[in-house]
Write a structure and sequence with these properties.
The protein has 223 residues and is α+β, with helices and mostly antiparallel strands. The protein is built from five helices and eleven strands, in the order αββββββββββαααβα. Helices cover 31% and strands 18% of the residues. The strands form three sheets. Strands 3-6-9-4-5 form a five-stranded mixed β-sheet, with no helix packed on it. β7 and β8 form a beta hairpin. α2 packs across α5.
Length: 223
């Protein structure tokens, strides 16, 4: 039998009583040979928000959860839109920020803001992170946030049944295995290569109908 002692003050501070909030005995993260570092030590949260009507210009880049592909973090149907089409107060993000989808965290959605989508506003269902560049490489942090290990860990903090969410305080309290910065830079290069491979494969799939027609047309012209 596994047991643990929980300080009553911690229970009161959490304002919740769920055993899984105070245990991590099932966590696969603790088995990592890299040191564990809390997300709060790797990034700050940006809570800046704005009414879309207050944004400059006639249009705005708005990112909703539907605009971020699971795991890869690739943009989906992302483009500027009229300010009037965004109906509610939104969070502000800028280049280098990571947008983590706190609604249905099992979808594993995290977007790294970079050209051409480096500045704009986003749904309040994102936690906007500002990575601390001295200790973590943004590409690596984004990848760690959508890892299966962290997603499994987040499951015990989810609030709500129909629309499960993760609270910021719980999110930033979680710990990630973090290698030295030089190792992170090597990982980042590999992650960029992997992303480029995914994008190339996607272009091939998109071009398939036209290429198929070209082949069939060539066959017909040779008769």
């Amino acid at each position: 039998m596994i047991s643990t002692i929980v300080d009553f003050d911690d229970v009161l501070a959490s304002e919740r009583w769920r055993v899984e909030l105070f245990t991590d005995v099932n966590s696969s993260i603790v088995e990592s040979h890299w040191p564990l570092v809390a997300i709060s030590e790797l990034a700050d949260e940006s809570s800046e928000a704005i009414q879309p009507s207050d944004c400059k210009g006639e249009s705005v880049l708005y990112i909703g959860l539907e605009n971020v592909e699971s795991v890869t973090g690739e943009p989906v149907g992302l483009e500027t839109r009229s300010k009037e089409s965004v109906k509610s107060r939104s969070k502000v993000f800028s280049s280098g920020n990571i947008l983590y989808g706190r609604l249905r965290p099992y979808l594993r959605k995290a977007f790294l803001a970079a050209p051409p989508f480096e500045n704009g506003i986003c749904s309040t269902e994102f936690i906007v992170l500002k990575p601390k560049l001295k200790v973590v490489v943004p590409e690596v942090l984004r990848a760690l946030l959508v890892s299966k290990q962290l997603t499994d860990e987040l499951a015990r903090f989810q609030i709500g049944a129909a629309l499960p969410r993760i609270a910021s305080r719980d999110f930033f309290s979680l710990r990630l295995p973090l290698p030295p910065i030089e190792v992170q830079k090597k990982w980042a290069r590999r992650l960029v290569t992997l992303s480029e491979t995914v994008q190339a494969a996607r272009r091939t799939v998109q071009e398939f109908p036209d290429r198929l027609d070209e082949i069939l047309n060539e066959t017909g012209s040779q008769k």
